[in-house]
TrEMBL record:
InterPro entries documented for this protein: HAD-like_SerB, HAD-like_sf, HAD_sf, PSP
EC number(s) recorded for this UniProt protein: 3.1.3.3
Required co-factors: Mg(2+)
Source organism per UniProt: Chromobacterium sphagni
Pathway the protein takes part in: Amino-acid biosynthesis; L-serine biosynthesis; L-serine from 3-phospho-D-glycerate: step 3/3
Catalytic activity: O-phospho-D-serine + H2O = D-serine + phosphate; O-phospho-L-serine + H2O = L-serine + phosphate
Protein name: Phosphoserine phosphatase
Length: 282
């Protein structure tokens, strides 16, 4: 017996023929157009889900199969990665740029995010290259280069309004997660601690490394502390080290992610901003 869901297509300036073709492939009998750029196809069958989503992406549309009647307010915890997910940069690459070694560090970052390198080893290798930088370089990156990704502020605002707790969990650094937590009213934030002595980075980390396993465990611990069911948790990320937490969440969202992450997630946002989540669950 097939499970019927609502296929939500986010289609800025939609082509009517595209929408017709998508509805036909999804075998969706009912089309709702609440907005010019949002099309809801109620009663869509999920058997051809991958084909349908691929067709939407080819047309430049984001799309997802949503449980009938489910709204954002049904989630009680939003877990998000930081670098290239909530924010627009990889902080470690921008710190390296101040030292003039961004290409070397960025290449390691890219391979780690694709899952080609052991995350912990790759992180320690990159941090070692930052030795000697003044702590002020972190402030410079936060002030001059770090911005929230499109739609992030709207998503966080909606979470506050709906009473959804927010957990920022990052393989990056506490300097940035703590600042974001304070500036944007996040409930929880965890990341790696850079060792700083006499105002300079030593090239080492303090404490345990926040890797893929730790991210998943932090999600599970927070879910347990809040006494939530898995389906009440949404997680958002972009890299290979986010996969375990995306799969542990009731709904895993890949945001402009590496291909293997998008393929494994429940929802893949490839074109829009983080406010696409609000549109999908409106």
């Amino acid at each position: 017996m097939s499970t019927l869901k609502t296929l939500v297509v986010l289609a800025p300036q939609p082509d009517p023929q595209h929408i017709t073709d998508i509805a036909h492939l999804a075998e969706a009998p009912h089309l709702d157009h609440p907005g010019a750029d949002i099309v809801r196809m109620r009663g869509a069958k999920a058997e051809r889900r991958q084909e349908v989503i691929a067709l939407c992406h080819r047309h430049g549309y984001d799309a997802a199969y949503i449980d009938n009647g489910k709204h954002l307010g049904d989630f009680r915890l939003l877990v998000s990665d930081m670098d290239s997910t909530l924010i627009n940069i990889e902080c470690i690459d921008e710190i390296a740029d101040i030292k003039g070694i961004k290409p070397q560090v960025a290449e390691i970052t890219e391979r780690a995010m694709r899952g080609e390198l052991d995350f912990s080893a790759a992180l320690q290798e990159r941090v070692a290259l930052l030795a000697g930088l003044p702590e002020s370089a972190l402030e410079q990156v936060y002030r001059e280069r770090l911005r929230l990704n499109p739609g992030a502020e709207q998503l966080l605002s909606a979470c506050r309004r709906l009473g959804i707790k927010t957990l920022l969990v990052s393989g990056g650094f506490t300097y940035f997660t703590d600042r974001l937590k304070a500036d944007y009213g996040l409930d929880y934030a965890y990341a790696n601690q850079l060792e700083i002595v006499d105002g300079r980075l030593t090239g080492r980390l303090s404490g345990e490394i926040i890797d893929a396993v730790a991210k998943k465990q932090l999600l599970m611990a927070t879910r347990s502390a809040l006494k939530l069911k898995p389906e009440q948790v949404m997680a958002v990320g972009d890299g290979a080290n986010d996969l375990p937490m995306l799969q542990e969440a009731g709904t895993g969202v890949a945001y402009h992610a590496k291909p293997r992450v998008s393929a494994a997630a429940d929802i893949a946002i490839e074109h829009g901003g983080l406010d696409a989540i609000l549109q999908l669950y409106h």
